[in-house]
Design a protein that fits this description.
With about 160 residues, this protein is mostly helical. The protein contains six helices and four strands; from the N terminus they run ααβββαβααα. The strands form two sheets. A two-stranded antiparallel sheet has the order 1-2. Strands 3-4 form a two-stranded parallel ribbon. α2 packs across α5.
Length: about 160
């Protein structure tokens, strides 16, 4: 990722793999309702394959690396410990390559990227790569699954 003082990159530029940025999401959560550890469990169980180096599904390049960007020392400690625990338990056939990379700025993608699955549920990429993850979330974590998603655009300020 570029330093926070640099101009916000576009999605197209990030997808080129030349900026050092990673395609990522920012998660805001209430620790009284769900722990950071439980979010990590969901992330490693449903969101992606943490053993793929610079690749997620059909997408490849450093911009698709497996990474966690903790916002506190405690989150960094918990994430590192969880990865060690998963590796020691041999949860995956290959070692976890997820990077823990604290202190990075988050740049939201352009509006047309926001809530893409909700707005384009039949898009081939969504059908092949994302809907199976949503189904896995519903199966593995029924208490955290919700039929009505929290939409990014609903939280965005009006222009």
């Amino acid at each position: 990722m570029l330093a926070a003082s640099r101009r916000q990159p576009t999605g197209e530029l990030v997808s080129s793999g030349t900026t050092g940025h990673a395609e990522s999401v920012s998660i805001t959560f209430d620790p009284r309702k769900i722990s950071y550890g439980h979010l990590l469990q969901i992330y490693f169980s449903v969101a992606h394959d943490p053993t793929q180096l610079n690749r997620q599904g059909p997408d490849h390049g450093t911009q698709y690396r497996s990474a966690i960007f903790p916002v506190s020392d405690e989150q960094e400690r918990v994430a590192k410990a969880y990865i060690v625990e998963l590796d020691q338990a041999k949860t995956f056939a290959s070692p976890i390559v997820t990077q823990i990379d604290p202190g990075r700025a988050f740049y939201p993608a352009e509006e047309y990227h926001q809530d893409f699955l909700t707005r384009h549920p039949t898009h081939p990429y969504i059908v092949v790569n994302d809907l199976p993850k949503v189904e896995a979330l519903q199966q593995l974590f029924p208490d955290q699954y919700r039929t009505e998603p929290v939409l990014v655009t609903a939280a965005m300020p009006a222009n």
